[in-house]
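Marked as duplicate of an earlier ticket. Keeping the data here for the record.
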Amino acid sequence: MASIKARYPTWFPQEPAIGGLAYSSGVRLGKMISVSVSPEYQQASALGGGRRIFTSAAVALNTSQLTFEAYKSMFGGAGANGELSDALGISKRGGFAYITGEQEDGDRFWRVHLLRDVIFIPPSESAVTFNGQVTFTTPSLSGTAWPDYIAGKWRERKDFNVLAAAEAALNLIDSNGGLTG
């Protein structure tokens, strides 16, 4: 199977809830350049059979831009004059979702990915001017995905034959509390 496209990186801030994770409305994180999710497992031989248990996943996202609204939603609040203030802010927990275009045996389909509980750290910032040339950089976010012990999973994936259906599922994550239907 080959991934041929990646799009619509979306952040869903977590809301306090009893009995599971709940999300508020999603915020787009610009156009996706790349995403990498690297799960880590721990050997659980005490449970028998040499089982491996998910502990966390490293998440790396390169995107075209990180809007003020997205930054505020993920890392901090606005100051008294509307300026962004993250000096004392902490990274917020949320769901991170995106869509990939996949191809398998000549068939194309769209897959929605949801990492249920993620904490990103603020991106580093850089700007370079050398001999009158400006070098543009794009935001690179890194974070950690954690298990959702109540739901018993750390991510959800669902396939769709049509992009519009995948987009609709992505847009309903906040009201459904995940990928349902």
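See parent ticket for discussion. Residues 15 and 146 are 16 Å apart (CA to CA).
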